[in-house]
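Researcher: For the record, we're logging two predictions in this thread. I'll number them. Prediction 1 follows.
Model: Prediction 1, sequence and structure:
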Amino acid sequence: MTQKIRTVIVDDDQLAREDLQALLQKDPGIAVAGICANGAEALGALDKNDIDLLLLDVQMPGMDGLQLLKALPPERIPVTVLVTAHDEYALQAFKAHAVDFLLKPFTEAEFHDVLTHAKEAVALRLLSRSKSTLLTLLEETSQNGVAVNGTHFRNSGGENNRSGLWLQRIPVNLLGKIHFVETGQVQWVEAADNYVRLHTETEVHVVRDTITHFESKLNPAKFGRVHRSAIVNVDYIAELRPYFMGEYVVILHDGTRLRVSRNRREKFRKLMNLR
């Protein structure tokens, strides 16, 4: 990235605002574009400026951080890191599509790790927007009967042009503390009413979410819905076996067997590049 990441700090505690500002100013790739003491001030700052990154306190008088995110149109929400002294908000951060969660008090090293993750998310979002714009231009060119290097391009839209970001880390409650599971470590996801079970190589974590909503956050190039109750990470598939009436059985490296239902067969075949 050649341009600085325009960042807004929102926290009702003056000392916290000053600490965050001081840490951000150490990074030459960051430009602090606004410092706000409450949600109302932040709404104004986000409305007037093109902001890339938002460091947002959760608990504030009046409009809190989560209410602020709900008040913003989806296209106006920057890459967001929730900052709070209460770890129970980590799960709400996940549901609010925040890219990360910073628990007060934090060390400079912890801040640096979260900021690095947030900067990567900003870069990916900008790249996605640029790609979408380019594909739109190429589609318009193709529709006008002009080819590029002899090839007509079409914008397929859909998942590959999603302006948001796919889920990278999942907060889970483990022994009364919030831990984060890397999405790539999840072998498969199992529906359990209004919860999902995340199966890793060594553990099973339970997260409050529906499987359909959870699926919408996952990279469709890596995760495929094989059944109404199961999503599989293709990196962990060891074998596919034909099954009854054109269905498949997916066998993971650990021996887990999952059935690919008929109504999801074609989409799964495309995901696996099967002819």
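Researcher: Logged. Prediction 2.
Model: Prediction 2, sequence and structure:
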Amino acid sequence: MEQVITIQSSQVELSATLHLPQHRSPGSKFPLVIICHGFVGNRIGVNRLFVKASRQFAAHGLAVLRFDYEGCGESFGEYGSYGLDRFIQQTKDVIDYAEGIRQVDQDQIFLLGHSLGGAIATLTASQDQRIKGLITWAAVGHPFHDIVKIVGKEKVQEYLSHPYVDYEGFALTKRFFDSLAEYSPMEAAKLFSGDVMVLHGSHDEDIPVDYCTQYHHTFKRGKSKSCVKEVISGADHTFSSVQGSNHLYGSTLEWLQSHTKKSNQSDYRVI
């Protein structure tokens, strides 16, 4: 079952889609994966990355909630007018909403973040003990450096003499860029005490594949229960090939299955 919903975050309405396993009995509860999209992205993803992942996970007994950050996709607001603090708060508000979904096992909530969403998921998980596990796909490691590289250094200089930088129709303000420099997800990773999986494409031209190893080492040195990493051969930043995306979904699903527990209900199972 797929349901389009609206989640309130402060004064902004966030658009989201909830996926629940088709075969369930009254009272069934399932682990939940919350998907955090990347920079100027949305809950559909490039080449429907998040739609395909969500449907595959739901087909194997997992609930999924994917949402649009403020000013992205179908959500209200203006993306780029606020800082990373708002991204983190919006993610926490989505977790609050998820806790109220009767089919969700509140002890089994996972965050999955892609690109900048991977950094936001890491920052959020480091602060929120409700998160059991964390999955990052091609995660940004140094928000200011990485996003400036994507936007272009010369273009970013525009905010020194203009109110915003126009990037693909998004008005990115000085507040937005300044906030990127204030956060270090690599440092925050040390504080997360749950289980972690870090994935990256070997042919990522946007975010260095070396970040995969750096994140892995940081999580291992920190408080995490466990951390595994995988570099997917030939995959780009958005895992846009059939082989790359299928490998991504398969590895992620296998990890999720190994880190979810069965409930006391006889009808609940992760296949």
